[in-house]
Amino acid sequence: MQDRVNARQLLVEMGAKIDHCAGSRDRKQSPLHFASSNGYTEAVQLLLEKKANIGYADSDGRTSLLHASSNGHTETVKLLLEMGADTSWVDDNGKTALHHASRNGHTETAKLLLQSGADVGHTDRHNMTALHEAYLNDHRDTIEMLTESYMREYYAHTNHMHTDQSEFKVDIVEVLIERGFDFNHSDTLGQSLLHAASVANNMKTIEFLTKMGANVNCTDNNGKTPLHYASKCGHTETAKLLIDKGSEFSYTDIEGKIPLHDASSSGHTKTMLIEMGSKISTADIKGKTPLHDASSHGKTETVKGADIDCTDEYNSTSLIGASRFGHTESVKLLLEEKADVAHFDTSRRTALHYASRYGHKDTVELLLKMGGKYLNEYVDIDGKTPLHEAGRSGCKETVKVEQLEIVGRLKQRQLLLEMGANIRCIDRSGKMPFHYATDNGHTQTAKLLEAATDDNNCVGIPNTVVYKLPSKALCLFHILCPPSSTQRPLSKLAFISPSCLLKIYSWRKDITPVSENKRTNCSH
């Protein structure tokens, strides 16, 4: 060892560069970095006496103090501190020397850093403190030292026990509480230890905390209790334990949701909560019940006792929600429970409208099978039928039910046509499904609809009339004629079904016929 010291001294005296940095392979570290990292205190002293840069950082942003602290070289750390090393320096990850010492369980080194002014509450780029590091690596002695010496300052920051919920350690919780930690203390998200233990499914910790008197109905910034989180995560036994310890079913979060809402949307724990007494009819601030949430996520196994046709603020039912997202099995179950297939929301759209819009062919087929052909005749607030919706989205699930095409989705549209959908029905903007298909570039769909104009879907109406809509003058016959027709149609038959004509009248009562001599009002 003495020979090494002499060799270093000789090199320095011969003019070796004190702050020469190694290449990128060695992270551009200086001799002082190497000496500090290995705990060569005498070498560190020699280099510092020769004016080595104590604050120089390597390619990771680490100074000599961080290297010495990370490896627990307390004497080297002490020397560096005496020579003016900065305890607040952070590396590229925002970690201080205290972070590095705590992460590796170097209790004495961490204690020395604290005595020299290191900030126990400093957080890195990931919002981690030194106590996080000690906790995550299960360094009990370091945790005891940090909590015992700096508990009050520690309180001013976050609840450090919440970080790694999957590795929740009850013995460390015990240490903190023994040292005066407030088990009801909440972090910046308003979450307590019980919230974290519930997410982690750690029943042992929950048992311990509730025995110590932790509040099982504490709420976080979103108004959620530990039971909300246990329910959402599907931790049935943990949820049951919380209920046994006094957790309430009726606590609502800021959205008005009870734990059963969270359980339903995740498909977990529903049956247990219902059996324990949770009310399935409870609505949140938007009028949605747990059944609405379950249906939107395809989780409707438990529907007994629920109001199948209850509506939210948009007059939407569970059937509409399930159809919108294509949960065919849920749709089937709801229909078997006598859900109203013809119910429409505030936009006058039925479940079939939404299934058609989003291209859920199987759901469309099921709705038509169980609801009947008449569903094709329903128009929404804009005068659109399910076929309009299918045309707009280019849902090519149609041409032939057995034929799947890669570009677009036609099968469901073919299905709608086979079930008697009115191809020529126009909406308030004067458009048929064909127009939506062409406007959106769905070529195959447009061809399908154009070809279908020769079927027997439409009947002729003599005594053609031109209609003027309030938004713009429209010649109804021009709109409804096949694209190839260039003749003036006033003396011809207008190809429009009676049902479509009635719907046009139902949209706006101020639609009035205009005579042929007022032809100038026609936009065509």
From TrEMBL:
Transmembrane annotation, as ranges: none
Domain of life from the UniProt record: Eukaryota
Keywords, ordered alphabetically: ANK repeat, Repeat
InterPro entries linked to this entry: Ankyrin_rpt, Ankyrin_rpt-contain_sf
Presence of the UniProt keyword Repeat in the record: yes
The keyword Ubl conjugation is assigned to this record: no
Residues spanning the signal sequence: none
ANK repeats: 27-59, 60-92, 93-125, 189-221, 222-254, 347-371, 382-428
Name the UniProt record assigns to this protein: Ankyrin repeat protein
